[in-house]
Write a structure and sequence with these properties.
By secondary structure, this protein is of the alpha+beta class. The chain contains 2 helices and 6 strands, in the order βαββββαβ.
């Protein structure tokens, strides 16, 4: 099993969710986050005063899937979330040692 963590631009969330649903992803966790990378934030003017915005709003997706499906999930997120501009996000893939469905006690692939 694999655990995929992806950060994407907020306005891409619904499009990515739809694309992942089409390929058979049955669930994911979504969190609103702030962060910075190459973008390093930006400056904005508010009521005539300029100030630095050091953290940029992002969406974090967390998806647990079987190992055979991981490459397809990564490819789908990459294609769908890509705008070609700085700040499109990152994808991290981790090995998932165990999963348990709380309601039924099912484990690993059955719990996904």
């Amino acid at each position: 099993m694999k655990f995929i963590i992806a950060t994407i631009k907020p306005f891409k969330l619904e499009e990515v969710r739809e694309a992942l649903t089409e390929i058979g992803v049955r669930g994911m966790m979504v969190t609103e986050i702030k962060g910075f990378g190459s973008q390093s934030g930006h400056t904005e003017i508010y009521r005539g005063a300029e100030y630095a915005v050091n953290f940029v709003p992002k969406i974090k997706l967390e998806i647990a899937c079987n190992a055979a499906m991981a490459d397809q999930v990564i490819e789908t997120i990459t294609k769908t979330a890509q705008t070609g501009k700085i700040g499109d996000g990152k994808i991290f893939v981790l090995d998932l040692a165990q999963a348990v469905r709380v309601r039924t006690g099912e484990t690993n692939d059955d719990a996904l």
